Amino acid sequence: MTAFVDISASAAVITGAGSGIGRATALSLARRGCRVVVSDIDGERAQSVAEEICATGAAARAIACDVTQSVDLAALRDCALDAFGQVDIVMNNVGVLAVGLPEAIPLEAWQRIIDINLLGIVRSNLVFLPLLMAQGRGHIVNTASTAGLLPYGFDRLPYTTTKHAIVGMSESLALYLRPHGIGVSCLCPAGVMTNIVEQITFYGEVATPRAPSLPIVPPTAWGELVADAIADDRFLVLTAPEVLDELRERAHDPDGYVVRRSENVG
């Protein structure tokens, strides 16, 4: 496919870019000539990544950004416009988890996770879509999860629910935005070594569902996968073909698939 943006002539904004997949993507895009605004709720981490990029001779800025605050996302947009005069790539890459049995996770945990994981992207859309549509070009990357594709995450139900919603949102946005010259990619990580464990809250005892057996992939590899997906205008970004095998199995026999999964609960 023909890419909607030329990475080497683009400016990107990335949330949750102070570590993990966001950091790796910022570095990968910068290596390809993209100018990057690194944002994170931890401003010091964002600054560290921006300095790492600048040390290579590429251009970067840093800004603290809380995706639950529309004013912070507007400031992120304005930072990119002030520094680079444009925004072409928007990566929404923030996620938190609550882990526990479905009946043990309280409403306030659901509200917090929905506000961050899902409504954070909604706020981003409200800030950045008018800009991208007015210029008639761009690319959006939304980070979901294999837990948003496959039914195994009952031990992290609010996270799983938001990630399913992000997949659906991304698919529908892709249909809407392609005619406007804007591409959409949806990341569905599995077995990626990140610091998301810092964002986990545990509630009571945990029963572990059977998750697909997938390789552990370092964030550096994900950064290149994301950059490739933008360059190639690819929608679904996975780390392993085994995920597609699971999706085919579920599509072939949805009822049997759920039954088999329920028989493998630890």
Verbal overview:
With 266 residues, this protein is of the alpha/beta class. 46% of the residues lie in helices and 15% in strands. It has eight helices and nine strands. The protein has a seven-stranded parallel sheet, with helices on both faces. Strands 5-8 form a two-stranded parallel sheet. The longest helix has 29 residues, at 107-135. It is globular.
Which properties best describe this structure?
alpha/beta; 7-stranded parallel β-sheet; 9 strands; 8 helices; two-stranded parallel ribbon; 266 residues
Largest sheet: 7 strands, parallel
Number of strands: 9
Contiguous runs where pLDDT drops below 50 for at least 5 residues: none
Mean pLDDT: 91
Radius of gyration: 18 Å
Share in helix: 40-55%
* Distance linking N and C termini: 43 Å
Strand content: 15-25%
- Give the oligomer, counting copies of the same chain as homo and different chains as hetero: single chain
Element-level helix/strand string = EHEHEHEEHEHEEHEHH
What is the 3D form? globular
Class by alpha and beta content: alpha/beta
Which SSEs are present, and which pair or pack?
Blueprint (H helix, E strand, L loop, with lengths): L10 E4 L5 H12 L3 E6 L2 H12 L5 E5 L5 H15 L4 E4 L4 E4 L6 H29 L2 E6 L13 H21 L4 E6 L12 E4 L15 H14 L3 E2 L4 H11 L1 H9 L4
Parallel strand pairs: 1-2, 1-4, 2-3, 4-6, 5-8, 6-7, 7-9
Helix pairs in contact: 1-6, 3-4, 4-5, 7-8
Quickly describe the structure:
46% of the residues lie in helices and 15% in strands. It is an alpha/beta fold and 266 residues long. The protein is globular.
